[in-house]
Amino acid sequence: MPHVDTHCPYCALQCGMRMDETRVGPRDFPVNAGGLCQKGWTSGELLRTGDRLTTPLLRRNGELRPASWDEALDFVAGRLAGLRRDHGADAVAVFGGGGLTNEKAYQLGKFARVALGTRNIDYNGRFCMSSAAAAGLRAFGLDRGLPFPVTDLAGAGTVLLAGANPAETMPPFLQHLRNADLIVVDPRRTPTAEQASLHLAPAPGTDLALALGILHAVVAEGYLGKSYVDERTRGFEEAWRIAAAWWPERAERVTGVAAADQRRAAELLAQAENAYVLTARGTEQHATGTDTVGAWINLALALGLPGRAGSGYGCLTGQGNGQGGREHGQKADQLPGYRKIDDPAAREHVARVWGVTPESLPGPGRSATELLDSLGRDGGPKALLVFGSNVVLSAPRAQHVQERLSSVDLLVVADFVLSETAAIADVVFPVTQWAEEDGTLTNLEGRILLRRKALDPPEGVRTDLGLVHGLATRLGQPAERFPTAAESVFDELRAASKGGPADYSGASYQRLRSGEALHWPVPSEDHAGTPRMFLDRFAHSDGRARFTAVDHSGPAEPSNAEFPLQATTGRVLQHYQSGAQTRRIAELNTVVPEAFVEVHPDTAVRSGLADGERAVVRSRRGETVARVRCVPSMRPDLVFLPFHFPGEGRANLLTNPVLDPVSRMPEFKVCAVSLARADT
After folding, report:
1. Can you give the residue ranges of the 4Fe-4S Mo/W bis-MGD-type domain (predicted)?
2. Are residues 429 and 290 located together in one domain of the fold?
């Protein structure tokens, strides 16, 4: 097969790549301009991993043993039918992923609601983008991570990054910021913060107070964009009544960020001809994540940035299809096109496309954390099907989640290797990898991309679409209702999304193959797409954006004498998400082969630890064992753990499952912990 132009399998930047068999190289594409990160360069190695699954596995006498596809499909379909018959449709649940293609996300939502009839479907994007999505909907009436192309950032004079570390999570992104004064808000001095003109390091869980302090400085120093606020927004007075009490000196006492630095941030943003405020996981993954993102949006609105050419607010999406994955139906409360599942008009439209009645569609289901917690309980699901996720590592309070997974009558996992979640399943289906199938993804700027098939999968491996088709037909669905060709599924997705907030109806594989840059919404086949949103009006009925009255409350779990430190989690350059992919690439795993904990040297000494020793990090939920790294730039009250590692090194054994009341996002970014020497 000749070389194929495609896209990286990892983050939402979706860098352009060129593949020749399993050899990978960069190509000139707007988001990466011919560059790739270390993960992208080595992504071809994943296609040759030695522990690739090539046959279904069925648990017999406690062990996973090879089975034929027909045997495994018949077994699963029979068990699903029996559980639905005996306990109702909601006895079966589906858990998807933000790395799945648009076609897979769409088909999973349809499969859950039509073939299974269950309301219990959600996905791991609930752990990733839900707070920013909720805040964006509240402020602008519509959620698209970046409502402008990434390349617009090259013209910025100042960019504020709140809770983002793209130097490690998406390195090619940084080239778009090289002309700007960079303000980085992060408790850690990350590689991104090292490149900043101004690094603001708030105490863990105090980002919202910092945003209020900077907003106060904007108004007090005369930087408020009054004409913009008057003409294009609502709710400023209510938001200001709270921010008025957060003068920078008060915010300094709470956050530890100097009042002078808060005022300097306000000045840099206000005096730049073009400026942007960008948020990411560090801002969102809190029990107050929606309000915290809302506070940064308030700052952007006060400066008159959103909906202005050359300036704006945006969120850096994390997973490869984190944007498209939440638009087309695998989220508990949504139907395709970013429609709400409890909207009668949306139900009628989608039901018509699917060939069913609106009354047959279930209502909203449980969010991801609540869904996992309900497994095996009275009234909870008794079976779970997992696609594109490794929740044994990625979910908060991970040991509890593993126990819930072990309690169900049937756990089915679709994966290409025996991930930590697949290893405890009753049935495992081997499915294709990114380069072995066609499919679309939507990157962080809302651009619909065609990731093309570059090589054939190993014999015995099927696509997720083929797996869903096999189960659906065995459950009595017409074969044509669940096609296996990605382009056919996408054409149906286009029809289902038509008229919705995320309208893909005018996009097509033909247009994408020809190289057209199509940012949604694309409401017709002669429409050029919408690279820049909100230039004329916001998506609320009156065309105005909304300030939100938000106040600081702090972490859900403050530190105390027993747990005197705060732990935060995140990613490192060499690994991605749960590490199921990158830990199988020798070049990456050799650099970072095991769990570690970053600690200030003084904190290590007080805990009786030295650099390189093994430590136990404990929280109220469990303990993690990790190698100590003494980092002088760390805050003495903070430790950092990457969440890529299995076994006793799972960072999410510690994390707090308390949820944001709006987004249902868990508080990954801060939990109270203690630190001690590990037993030898």
Report:
1. 1-49
2. no
Closest CA to 199 of 213, 212, 184, 218: 184
For residue 586, what are its two tokens? 């020798």
CA distance 57 to 76: 12
Question: Is residue 511 in a domain?
Answer: no
Rounded to two decimals, what is the model's pTM? 0.96
- pLDDT, one tens digit per residue, over 587-636 is 999 999 999 999 999 999 999 999 999 999 999 999 999 999 999 999 99
What CATH number should be reported for the domain holding residue 388? 3.40.50.740
Q: Which residues contact 226 (CB under 8 A, 6 or more apart)?
A: none
In a domain, 541, yes or no: no
- Flag whether 151 is in a domain: yes
CATH of the domain at 203: 3.40.228.10
Confidence band, pLDDT 50/70/90 cuts, at residue 680: low
Q: Which of 316, 347, 380 is the last residue of a domain?
A: 316
For 108, the domain range is 57-127+321-484
Nearest in space to 95 (alpha carbons), one of 451, 383, 521: 383
pLDDT score of 1 = 53
Helix (H) or strand (E) run with residue 392 in it: helix 391-394
The domain total for the chain is 4
Query: Under DSSP, is residue 113 helix (H, G, I), strand (E, B) or coil?
Result: helix
Q: What is the pLDDT of residues 101-127, one digit of tens each?
A: 999 999 999 999 999 999 999 999 898
Residue 195 and residue 116 share a domain: no
Tokens standing for residue 272? 């730049």
Q: Stretch 197-226: mean pLDDT, rounded?
A: 97
Q: pLDDT tens, 291-318?
A: 999 999 999 999 999 999 999 999 999 8
531 token code pair = 């690279």
Is the CB of residue 56 less than 8 Å from the CB of residue 72? Answer: yes
Report if residue 214 sits inside a domain: yes
Same domain, 386 and 471: yes
272 in the same domain as 366: no
The average pLDDT across 485-504 equals 98
- Distance, CA of 300 to CA of 227 (rounded, Å): 14
Mean pLDDT of 482-494: 98
- Give the helix ranges, DSSP H, for 166-206: 166-169, 191-194
Which distant-in-sequence residues (6+ apart) come within 8 Å of 651 by Cβ?
A: 567, 569, 595, 624, 641, 642, 643, 645
Which of 284, 316, 348 terminates a domain? The answer is 316
List, for residues 422-442, the tens digit of each pLDDT value: 999 999 999 999 999 999 999
Structure tokens belonging to residue 509: 């594989």
Residues 308 and 328 in one domain: no
User: Three-state SS for 118?
Assistant: coil
Enter the tokens of residue 61: 């006498």
Query: In 256-314, which ranges are continuous DSSP H helix?
Result: 259-271, 281-284, 289-302
